Structures are given as C-alpha cells and as structure tokens.
Amino acid sequence: MSKVNLNRIKSVLAEKNRNGKDLASHLGKTETTVSRWCTNEIQPSIETLYEISKYLKIDIRELLVSTK
C-alpha cells in the first residue's frame, strides 16, 4: 500500500517561512518526529495539530489534505 498524504505540515511551514527545527523546539518534540510528520510517515495527534496551527497562526484545517 502506498503512503497517503494526510497532512500539509511541510507545505505550510514553507509558506510561513518556518522550519521543522523551530516547530520541534516550540512543541518540545524531536526534529525526527517533526520530520516524520512532514513526510507523512506518521501523523500528529489532533491536540498536536491544534498546537501547530496556533504556532503558525492558521486554521487547523489548513494543515490537513482536503478530501474533496
């Protein structure tokens, strides 16, 4: 089964001129964990998505790939 992209964390970080290292530091997570989120290898919890959206000052829905 091929990997399905469920989140847009990597894209949004680029749009906001932020990087995974800063996000990891802000959330108290490892850079490896954030990297795995960015490659859709694993997914953050809903609570973590909420914290990411607050950090990036965006609506949480912008972090998810649309199902339309």
TrEMBL record:
Record-linked InterPro entries: Cro/C1-type_HTH, Lambda_DNA-bd_dom_sf
Domain HTH cro/C1-type: 9-63
UniProt protein name: Helix-turn-helix transcriptional regulator
Highest taxon of source: Bacteria
Species for this entry: Flavobacterium psychroterrae
